[in-house]
Amino acid sequence: MSEPTSETRVRVGIRIRPLTAKEINQGGKNSLQTSPPSIKVAERQFTFDTVFDSDVGQAELFDSVASPLLKAFVDGYNSTVSN
């Protein structure tokens, strides 16, 4: 197992879920503005390591997030993906 580098750290990414059919039928609108790596809700802005919009597919999400963590896990590092 190689030594951890300065790049070894906790990273936080979010995926914005699409509105459900019920939310759309009730006139719901997306209240988030995305400008990766940030999102804006009303007047508040939050910054993350990664922001995925609601149109990102599972394969792209896996390739961007889980695949590198799986490699790190096989190399002996702790890795966690949570929803």
Task: Give an overview of the whole structure.
The protein has 83 residues and is of the alpha+beta class. Helix content is 27%, strand content 22%. Strands 2-3-4 form a three-stranded antiparallel β-sheet, with no helix packed on it. Strands 1-5 form a two-stranded parallel sheet. It is elongated and about 50 Å long. The chain starts with 12 loop residues before the first strand and ends in a 9-residue tail after the last helix.
Please describe the structure with a list of short key phrases separated by commas or semicolons:
alpha+beta, three-stranded antiparallel beta sheet, 83 residues, 22% strand, 5 strands, 27% helix
Write the layout of secondary structure elements.
Elements: E1 13-15, H1 21-25, E2 32-35, E3 38-41, E4 44-47, E5 50-52, H2 58-74
Parallel strand pairs: 1-5
Antiparallel strand pairs: 2-3, 3-4
Largest sheet, described in full? Answer: 3 strands, antiparallel
Q: Helices and strands, in N-to-C order?
A: EHEEEEH
Shape: elongated
Radius of gyration (Å): 16 Å
How many runs of DSSP E, i.e. beta strands? Answer: 5
Q: Which structural class do you get from the secondary structure elements?
A: alpha+beta
Helix content: 25-40%
Number of H- or I-type helical stretches: 2
Mean pLDDT: 85
Strand content: 15-25%
Terminal CA distance: 28 Å
Poorly predicted runs of 5 or more residues = none
Can you list the strand order of the major beta sheet? 2-3-4
